[in-house]
Amino acid sequence: MNQTILHRRTLGHFLLAGALLVGGAVGLSRGAHAADEAPDALVKRLTTDVLETIKSDKSIKAGETQKIMALVDSKILPNLDFARMTASAVGPAWRQATPEQKTRLQDEFKTLLVRTYAGALDQVSDQTVTVKPFRGSVDDKEVLIRTEITGRGDPVQLDYRLVKTPGAAGGWKVYNLNVLGVWLVDTYRTQFAEQINSKGIDGLIATLAARNKSSVKS
User: Fold this and answer.
1) Which of 20, 46, 127, 150 is the most exposed place for a label (fewest CB within 10 A)?
2) Residue 80 and residue 200: Cα distance in Å, rounded?
3) Which residue range is the domain that position 129 belongs to?
4) pLDDT for res 61
5) How far apart are CA 196 and CA 106, in angstroms?
6) Is residue 124 scored above 90 in pLDDT?
């Protein structure tokens, strides 16, 4: 019984956390300073803007998928290392995938995340996010930023893993998040491995495409 309750609580917090991440498309802009922005500052800006915008935008809060998807494409993806997220979720099979398969996997995984977490946006109410003191170094290439969501119920720890990417469009990018000890990408890796082992890469792509098609929200 306790495990069931914990599972439901974890799932609910994961949905909210994912909503903060993919819903973060709303209201975010990547200014000229972003490449030099500290990782904790990025996470603070991201989560604060997300919460405030979701609270004030009824259509986003209602989970209108097409609007959220368009905003993700234009706003949130610059703050994600999405190729790394997808590769990690797919696991070792990623190395054997063709360029076309990798493109399809990224497209379907992005759609899956947006449509899964769009339904959790209505859980956003009076929550606030506190970014805990950054314990890393500005010279690190990968960092962990810890935050805490407070509002209804007990506080929830939400951690972000970020990697520093080079180039003019570089800077810190999110590639994984953790809620109550569960990492999002790791959770999907377990699910994807079952599909890959039984049906291969193309089977996983087909499964994701079918799931995404069945969850279309008008």
Assistant:
1) 150
2) 26
3) 2-214
4) 67
5) 15
6) no
Mean pLDDT, residues 201-207 taken together? 97
For residue 32, pLDDT beyond 60: no
Of 53, 37, 68, 43, nearest to 131 by C-alpha is: 43
Can you give the pLDDT at residue 59? 78
* Residue length of the chain: 218
d(CA 103, CA 75) in angstroms, rounded, equals 19
DSSP state of 38: -
Q: Kindly state the tokens that stand for 192.
A: 């994807």
Residue 134 burial (CB < 10 Å; 0-12/13-18/19+)?
middle
Give me the CATH number covering residue 38.
3.10.450.710
User: 149 forms bridges with which residues in the sheet?
Assistant: 129, 156
Rounded Cα distance, 45 and 201, in Å: 37
Please choose, from the candidates 181, 65, 61, the residue with its C-alpha nearest in 3D space to the C-alpha of residue 113.
65
**Which pLDDT tens digit goes with each residue over 47-101?**
777 777 777 777 776 777 777 666 666 666 677 888 999 999 999 999 999 999 9
**CA pair distance 22, 2, nearest whole angstrom:** 30
